[in-house]
Structures are given as structure tokens and as C-alpha cells.
Amino acid sequence: MSACVMTAIRMLALCLAGLTSMAPAAAQGVSDADARSYPNRAVRVIVPFPPGGPADLIARFVGQKMSEDWGQPFVIENRAGGNTVIGAQVVARAAPDGYTLFIPMDTTLVMNPLVVPNLPYDPLKDFALVSLLTKSMSLIVVRASDGPKTIKELIAKAKANPGKLNMGAGTITSRLGAVLFAKSAGIDVQLVPFKGSAEIGQAVLAGTVDFALDSTGTALPLIQGGKYRALAKYSNRPLPILPDLPALSVAAGLPAIDESSTWIGLAAPAGAPAAIVDKLWRKVAAIYADPAMHERMEKAGITPISSTPAEFDAFIRSETARWAKVFAENSHLKLAD
Fold first, then answer.
1. Where is average pLDDT lowest: 19-23, 55-59, 76-80, 316-320?
2. Of the candidate ranges 194-198, 244-248, 290-294, the one whose mean pLDDT is the lowest
3. Pair type for strands 127-143 and 261-269
4. Using the 8-state DSSP alphabet, how is residue 117 labeled?
5. Is 284 in a helix, a strand, or coil?
6. Which of 172, 207, 216, 288 has its CA 20 to 30 A from that of 198?
């Protein structure tokens, strides 16, 4: 067994053993009255991606509604770079008073521990989980003006031009999903990594990449505007906003291929008051219970999903086990920046 595989397995064991340490603890120096009056001043929300991507969109949707309901600004700060590491460090070092929040992704809490050596934050100890926010479906997209019309046409083009087509992807999860698609389809293509969906869109439209994995939320305006053509959804789940888009497993004739999707959550620095964490996840649930808000988000290509902190913890356990196995089987790949 290779050293990389052994490392991945050890990281999985550490993740599963230590995830409970992400449960919020009572912050020192924060009174019950402070928790009850929360928020009584501006809250900053750290998004570890550039503006315009799915994490930024969901942060602005939820942050705007919290601001309206609670009468305090929820200020979005985009701290992109390092596969979410830069933003994660900012939050890990922030005061655990509930006035700095974080929009972590699968990359932050699951993938980075598996692929980034000497990670400068501890995903098991530095954050208090609040709630899931969304589970975004990935789409395989091409430029509408001259791209292939179907996923089978894309595969045929790639097979006719081995090693010459470029495929783009952003997060580590998306990159791994792109590689698994290419491997399953038996095509030789070059992976081009990007920092976020905004860069992916520019690359697809400029022809720098021939196709890409992009999230529904950021791909949808380009699809509706006639710039993108979506060839398949990388999931078997329904997608009401694009009801006729086929699943990749069906359209490409790859029934064994699993879902590739990114997820986004809400967290705070470790030690955030339990009463504030409780207040935040209940607010997320209330926001999503509003049919108008639910419809607004789905029209933007965002599937709203809330959870309790404990449910979020259990979800991360499941995702860690799943992707650690996949990574161990593909440990020769360079997936991090």
C-alpha cells in the first residue's frame, strides 16, 4: 500500500474520531444576555471564494435575510485563495463571539485534510458547525456557440483528440469529479484547475477550456443567456429549474458513476456560544421555511438545505468516509493548488 494511501486512511481515522470536537462550546466571557440580544452590531461573513460563485451567492441570500430580520448588517467579506485556506485561517483566528461567521465548503472541512500537507488550520478543532446551507449540483457545460450538443458528442470528440481537450473545475471536489468522469468515460483530457466559478465561466467562454464542471447556481444565468450549453447534470437527483437536462450516468451510458456535488455550510470560530449557534441554525431553518425565499433560491439554481449542528456533523462524517476512499484510489493526482 502506497504512502499516499496510508496517509489518506490515517486522515480518515482522525476525521471520524475527532469530528465531535467541532461541536460548539460555550465561549468564555459571553453572557447569557449577550447571547439573547445577538446580534446587536454588524456581523462579518467570511466567504473563501471570489464574488459571484455559489458560496458568495448563498452567503448573500442568507445574510440579507438575517439582516432584514435582525436589523443588523451582515457584511460579506470575500477572502479567496488556497482552496479556502485563506478564509479558514481568518475565521479560525477570530474572536468566538458570533460576530465572525464562515461559509465553509466540502473543500474546507473534508477535502483539504486529505490533500493538503501541513494544513494551517485544524478542521476538527477550529470551527463550530452551525448548519448546512445547500448541496449544489454540478453540471457539465460547454460554450453554446460551438460546443458539442450532447455528452456523447463530447466524449466522441475527446476520444478522437486524445490529450488535446481541456476540462475546467474549481473546488477539489469538482476537480476529482471531473477526473472520475474522464476516467469512467475512457477519455484522455487535461484538467485545468480554477479558483472559482467566475474564472471557469471566463475560460469556457474564451475557449481556454473545452468543457467544465460548474455549479448550477453560477451556470444557470449563462445557460439562460445562451452562453453556456449544459450537457448533463452530475447527479441523479431532480433539477426542477432544468427539468429536461439528463443525468450524466444516463446520458453518457455510465450507470456506475456516482454524484459529484459541492456543499456549502455555515460555521463560526470554535468556542462560539452555544446559544448563538442555536439561534443561527434556527434562523436558517426559518428562512428556508419561507416558500417565497425557497422559490427565489431555487430559481437561482440553489437548492436550500438546512440542518442542526449535529446533523451537519453526521453529514461531514459520511462525506469524509466517501471521499477518503475515492482519494486513496486516485492518490497519484495533484488536486490541490
1. 19-23
2. 194-198
3. antiparallel
4. T
5. helix
6. 288
Nearest to 271 by CA among 47, 23, 51, 34: 23
**pTM reported for the whole predicted model:** 0.75
Residue whose cell numbers read 451537519:
312
**328, 24 contact by CB (below 8 A):** no
Ramachandran sector of residue 185 (left: φ over 0; alpha: ψ -120 to 50; beta: rest): alpha
DSSP string for residues in 86-114: HHHHHHHTS-SSSSEEE--BHIIIIIHHH
Measured in whole angstroms, how far is the alpha carbon of residue 30 from the centre of its chain? 31
How many CB atoms within 10 Å of residue 221?
Answer: 14
State the first-to-last Cα distance of the chain, in angstroms, to the nearest integer: 25
Cell numbers for 241, please give them: 429549474
Nearest residue to 93 (alpha-carbon basis) of 62, 122, 65: 122
**Cell numbers at residue 221, please?**
444565468
DSSP label at residue 234: S
Distance CA 194, CA 170 (A): 5
Does residue 132 contact residue 139 with C-beta atoms inside 8 Å? no
Question: What residues does 193 pair with on adjacent strands?
Answer: 169
